[in-house]
Amino acid sequence: MTEAVAVKSGTVRFTLDGQPVEAPGGTTILEAARSRGVYIPTLCYLEKLLPIGSCRICSVEVEGVNGPVMSCATPVLEDMAVTTKSDSLAEYRRQMMQFILVNHPVDCPICERSGECSLQDRSFEFNASWQAFKTEDYKKKPVIDWAALRYDKNLCIMCERCVKICREVQGFNALEIDGSGYGAKINTVTRQKLDCDFCGQCLSVCPVGAISSAIILSARSWEIKKVESICPHCGVGCSYHMDLKLGKIVRISSDDNIGVNNGNLCVRGRFGFEAFHSDERIKTPLALKGVKHEPVSWDQALSEVVEKIKEAKQKHGPNSVAVLASENLTNEDAYMLQKVMRAGFGVNHIDTMSNMINSDLNAQMFDNYGASSQITSYDEIGKAGAFLFFGCDAANENPVIANMVRMAMRDKGAPLFVASSRDTSDFFPGPDSMMRYKYGTEAYLAASLIKAVTDADIGGLDPDSVADQVDDTAGLVKSAEFINVQDAAKVTGVDFKAIKQTATALALRGAPLIFIGKEIHDHHGSAEIMRALANLANLTGGKTLVYKEHCNSQGANDMGLSPTHLPGYLKADDTGAVEHYNKKWGSDFPAFSSPGPNIFDGLSDGTIKTLIVAGCDPITYYPDGQYVREAIQNAEFLVVSGSFPSETSVLANITLPSCQIAEREGTYTNNEGRAQLIRKAIDRVGQARPEWEIFADIGARLGLDSYLSCEQVADEIADSVPGYQGLTHDNVSGGGGLVSYPRKGKAESFQFNIKPVETGESGSYPFLALIMNSLFHLGPATRRSPTLNRLEPSAYIEMNPEDAEEGSFNEGDKVVVESKQGSILASLKIKNRARKGVVFIPINFENAPAAHLVYRNDPVTRVKISKS
């Protein structure tokens, strides 16, 4: 009886164009009409934004109300009578259009939005074929240059979409309305040059041509062919359209109705496409002859690769050959690579840079965490009771996830808490609590939150409340029983009130979603931190989601790019798992034991003689880059595949040109374990091939199966790899398909060590350096985008204002950053984000490789800074 009343009280009955209808309470007239297939015209309305109500085009008539009402902002009420079509409404809407068209230029023939302009569409719909009104003394305004964007006041209809999406979804609040009446315009909040994330969200939602890209569009809308694909610039897995004219990508666009991203993109996704047409491509296989790389045929190149691998294995054994692969490879690339190496050559030492830094969070995730493993659907964002970003720069690492969180905060009222060694409270709306901890005390802070959550005077959570989800609730509590929360505040540098506020909310709100970022992933104490955060999530009925750095970080591990696991996380030393794949592949490779030291140590000590580097540049991006260079130089034979020349390819005996994603098909598996299809949009450059094709060709030379298409490889994955059953190209082409990962029933409790990581004495190197990714760059492709390079052209270091004052540094100073391993040149930025004594350096500049500052065996990197 109670449920029936509750349902009834949540339902509103009214009439729509004379027809009785029902809708949930709080639904707007526009939403209710759309759900019934009733058309109401709109101009400023956008479903993912709160109602704006600036254009009044969506106005309807409501019985008993004088004058039209805006359907986008008016909720339905019991017994309301709504009319969406009448002669008077048609005239009213036409008049509203004429007001909007006051002084609007009739530049449609040369406007880049012509043909896809909402103003054109509504003008045609309402027959607003003349300008009935005009202001006096109107003078055309100059177009404003906003770096990657341009604003044309003359075309602006003041719909406010750009202002609203910047604030509500992107969280930057960079734009606002300046002035009133017909003199109003969109301006920056500071009235200075636009300084923001340059995500281009304002560009994507502008219904006219007022905000446009600084990349001048060279095509009209009717000349453009759209190819839907997946963005390659992080692990979110955003869908987008590559817009082509005459075989060239001229822009990236998005659609609110496709993909996980709801039409949202970040700056890399929107402007990184320029690299697809870079002139700096490797176009033909190259062989090192003397001191020069000279073009050779594919047959010559691959014949030599096969011969050298066989020779090394015969002379020195299978562990003398190793493969280092990129997490940007597609599932098909990664699967084919490891199949050929294992089934064809009997070689198992296959790894990725991320796994070598921290296997605990990648290849061994399911062994270590079972039901607590860090694979969580994005749907959980909308269900979360609270959000905790831990060691995670939310808006910079996977920016579109931050968009999802903002919308959930707006719509559900879920609070946000941030724990980081840098202040990331520029996330808008700001966190309810910002816990800026001392680097190295992360596990201690996580343990203090566990203790505080169950403390009767703070969170007061009863652990038995999650007994149906966790095997050992007593173990969860016990893991932090030795913590004194007041002492933890002193150890971590986080205010006790912030810990208390966070713990109380996590306990009371329940079901938090804990995001874990690169700062934790690359941390020397990451295993302990992860176990502590898994316990915190399990205790509060929540989940964790690890930000993945690359577009196929998840899929690369799913496909077995690991020396410990075969595809589907079957153990490489398990005879049953080996038998499964030998039967599928018609091969006879043995169970593999551990290959020994990591790849670079193996190269350095002479154990590894032959190295294949597939799609990555470890000399630039792996910690202790100089050591990596010397180790690779020790290889007797080096093969490198890639799209662009790199510090690593310079040393290669054989260089193999590979395709960029716009030139091929395949699948990526994103953070949430969703396999999604990438589609070919443009022709291959030169003789470039996708990696699956390269390794399939090698496999055919060894007597393995031949493959005619990428789709054929995907079919084999769907047949062979646990969790990927049924995920063929056809089945993932419309929104992707979720992988069925292994689980172990109830969540577990974990023991962990809270001893803070030693950060070293200041001494000659007074600054602790945090080396992570920039918002604008991630790998060689983004560095070949003119727009992204214009926004962030060179390396920089971010310093606390107190440190800058003490060292007499000024904003923009050119400085030398030096560690005991090496030095780089950079520009100085002064920001109050890191603690005093801590600096941030992006890893993304090959001409100032911050990874070369790192010493591989030190838990932290310390540097000194001087003016150049």
Task: Please tell me about this protein's structure.
There is one protein chain. The protein is of the alpha/beta class and 868 residues long. It folds into 5 domains: 2-100, Ubiquitin-like (UB roll); 110-123 and 130-277, Alpha-Beta Plaits (2-Layer Sandwich), CATH 3.30.70; 301-358 and 576-738, Rossmann fold; 385-541, Dimethylsulfoxide Reductase, domain 2 (3-Layer(aba) Sandwich), CATH 3.40.228; 767-867, Barwin-like endoglucanases (Beta Barrel), CATH 2.40.40. The strands form 9 sheets. A 7-stranded mixed sheet has the order 15-14-27-26-25-16-17. A 6-stranded mixed sheet has the order 32-34-33-36-31-35. Strands 2-1-5-3-4 form a 5-stranded mixed sheet. α8 crosses α26 (691-701) and α15 packs across α18 (496-509). The longest helix is centred in the middle third of the chain and has 19 residues, at 298-316. The model is unreliable at 1-9 (pLDDT under 50).
Q: How many alpha or pi helices?
A: 30
Fraction of helical residues: 25-40%
Overall pLDDT metric = 93
Largest sheet: 7 strands, mixed
Low-confidence stretches: 1-9
Termini, distance in Å? 77 Å
CATH class (first level) name of the largest domain: Alpha Beta
Rg is 29 Å
Tell me what portion of residues adopts beta-strand conformation.
15-25%
**CATH fold name of the largest domain:** Rossmann fold
Give a count of the beta strands, DSSP E runs of length 2 or more. Answer: 36
Question: How many individual domains?
Answer: 5
Largest sheet strand order: 15-14-27-26-25-16-17
CATH architecture group name of the largest domain: 3-Layer(aba) Sandwich
* Coarse structural class: alpha/beta
Shape by Cα distribution: globular
